[in-house]
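Contributing new records

If you add data, match the layout below exactly. Sequence lines come first and carry their own label; structure lines follow with theirs. Keep one chain per record. Anything else will be rejected by the validation script.
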Amino acid sequence: MTTIGVAFLTAFGCSLLLTRAIMFLAVRLGAVDLPDGFRKLHGRPVPFGGGIPVFVAFAAPTIGLLLFPEISTISRDIWEHIGRLRLLYACAAGVLVLGMLDDALELKPGWKIAGQLAIAGAAYWGGFRIDSLSNPFGSPLELGAFALPVTILWFLGCMNAVNLLDGLDGLAAGVTVFAGGTLLVVALHFENILAMFLMASLTGASLGFLIYNFPPARIFLGDGGSLLLGFLIASLSLVGASRKAETAVALFIPMVALGLPIVDTMVAIVRRWYKRLPISSPDRQHIHHLLVSMGFSHRRAVITLYLVTVSLGALAFLMTIARSEVVVLLLGTFFVVGFVSVRLFSGVRLQDALGKMYQDRLRREREMRARLALERAAARCARVQSLPQMWRICEEALEGSGMEWAKLTLFAGEHSDYQVFTWEKPGRGSETVGVWSVTLPVRHDGRRMGELVVGRSLGGAAGGEILDLFRRLSALIGQTLVRMHGRVAAGEPAGDKAPEGGG
């Protein structure tokens, strides 16, 4: 235990000194975060790059024991797992570099996720994996072939959860301190010496940085630091989990201890899905933003969320040592609190979310019917001999795709007169208000031969995939005309005009 305490103090001291040095260098180099008056509410430029002192301070105790192995018997545990530890530090450095590149260059979300996937995959193949899940009512659930995707999701979830939480001064670093302390106690319960040593190093490094990051912050973590903290929490919770009991809690306990950023991330995903926004789009509706909008000062909001994290950490530890009956009660409490949090902070009612899911299912079914109807039409149009016969096939395809009316206009040409074909779904009313329509050109080989207009009531407006199917239908009409006449009828020059929708 003395070595564990020394590791904590060493990481804490190194983090204090290095953070001060990085603050000075960042200002000199212009690596500062400028306020924007929307999501970045600090009143002056603040240096970022806090991930560098956290990384170095976290590694310092391990380096010390590698250089002076006679100091403590923990050195034997370190040398026994030296291969995995080298991979751990290499992956952590990769995460730090990835986040710093995002801070400097504002990488596209796809590149960030690709980098995180690569690092998580390397960690999995290096031995940081989840082979089973905790089961409070019996033996652990073996994952088998699902170990890889579950592990990858675990790493990506932790990294992005802490990254999204880094919206108020001191929040991400403070949550890491309390979550790391919880996992340190859990490692002590299982007598996992190496995990205790590494968790003490992480907690000390985070606490040293928090001294300068607590509101009002004098330095920010940046994406490099927040992604690094999430990765270290994810990986250290799996260190040394070779015994069945430790493997069982490897995922479950950190999930409860990190309940705040995980719930916040889930709420953000639900909120953006409901509003049809990209998952990566920023907003000011995270839990910490809402607390500030409710009148909490930054410091009071951060302390409130610290208390939530401490409570979840205590809940996680009780789940580790309690009997199954107590675990059921704690789990019920946890899920009730989670549901209330989602309801309060997501801005989405359960009824609205279920309605959105139902509408999405109807849309997918409509798109599938439209695709099948178009495929049948394509097969039948290959054998038609007249325009009325072709239009009857198109009518069936349009009705199968959920449309209610259509109009095909063929321009006058060498082999045909100016012709118009119309179709209306049986039983459709004569109202003209609230109609969605789209106009599509009928082309072939650069010549415009006519146009196809399809529509239906506004409540059933088509999505992008059905629009693509209608474009294929208009192209199919053009191909059928060419096949029937032998060559393209003379018509208007083709333009690049996009389909027009009307409502």
